[in-house]
Specification:
alpha+beta; 5-stranded antiparallel β-sheet; elongated
Length: about 200
C-alpha cells in the first residue's frame, strides 16, 4: 500500500447522490461515482470494478456518519484502487518491542495493533502516535485487516465535527452530529468486515 497515493479524509459529496443510481457495469469506464473529499481532492469509482457495489455503499456510510475514508488512488486516472475505513480512536499506550516494532494500544479496540519498523514511514507515524498519546487527542488509524499493521495515522479535530458539504446538498440530505468513539468503532467493524483486499479476496 502506498500512502503517497492515498486520500485520508471525510467525504463532502458523491455524485450521483442516490445509492439507487450506483449501478455496477461490466464495461470499464462506462459508469463512475465521483467522490469529493472535504479537503477538495477528488476521486472516482469505476462501477465495473468487482468491488464497486460494496465500496459505493461503504463510501456512502462513511459520508453519512462523518467518518474519514482511506482511499488509494491511481494518480493517472484518479480511480479508487483500494478502500479502507480508519478507526477513530485515542492512543492508550505505546510499547517498544525487541524487534524494533511498536505495539500500540488503542482506546476502545481490543485488538493488538503494531507499527512495523520496516514501514518506510515509521518515524512519521510513530511521532503522530506519540503526539496523540501525549495530548490525549483523537486520531484516525488505518491498518491492514489481517495483521492489524498500522499503515496511516491522521490527526482529527478534537472533538471531531461533521463533514461540510462542498456543494448544495440534495433535498433529502440530513445533517449529522459529531459521533462518539463507540459509534465510530461500531461503524469501523461493520465497514471493514465488508472491505475487500483486491489481492487476496476471492472473486464473487
Amino acid at each position: 500500500m502506498s500512502r503517497k497515493n492515498a486520500i485520508i479524509e471525510r467525504i463532502s459529496r458523491m455524485n450521483p447522490a442516490e445509492a439507487s443510481e450506483y449501478k455496477p457495469t461490466s464495461r470499464p469506464g462506462q459508469s463512475y461515482v465521483d467522490v469529493t473529499f472535504q479537503n477538495g481532492q477528488t476521486a472516482r469509482l469505476d462501477m465495473s470494478n468487482r468491488f464497486a457495489s460494496a465500496w459505493s455503499n461503504i463510501l456512502q456510510s462513511l459520508q453519512k456518519s462523518g467518518l474519514p475514508a482511506y482511499a488509494e488512488i491511481d494518480p493517472d486516472t484518479r480511480e479508487i484502487t483500494q478502500l479502507m475505513s480508519p478507526v477513530v480512536v485515542r492512543v492508550e499506550k505505546l510499547t517498544q518491542l525487541a524487534s524494533g516494532d511498536v505495539e500500540v494500544e488503542l482506546f476502545i479496540s481490543q485488538a493488538r495493533h503494531v507499527l512495523k519498523r520496516s514501514n518506510p514511514d515509521f518515524q512519521e507515524l510513530y511521532d503522530l502516535l506519540q503526539a496523540a498519546w501525549q495530548k490525549d487527542a483523537t486520531i484516525a488509524v488505518t491498518e491492514t485487516l489481517d495483521a492489524h499493521e498500522i499503515i496511516d495515522v491522521t490527526e482529527l479535530p478534537n472533538p471531531m465535527q461533521p463533514a461540510v458539504a462542498s456543494a448544495e446538498p440534495p433535498p433529502d440530505t440530513r445533517s449529522y452530529a459529531a459521533i462518539s468513539l463507540e459509534r465510530a468503532q461500531e461503524l469501523y467493524d461493520l465497514v471493514n468486515a465488508r472491505c475487500c483486499d483486491p489481492v487476496t479476496a476471492p472473486a464473487p
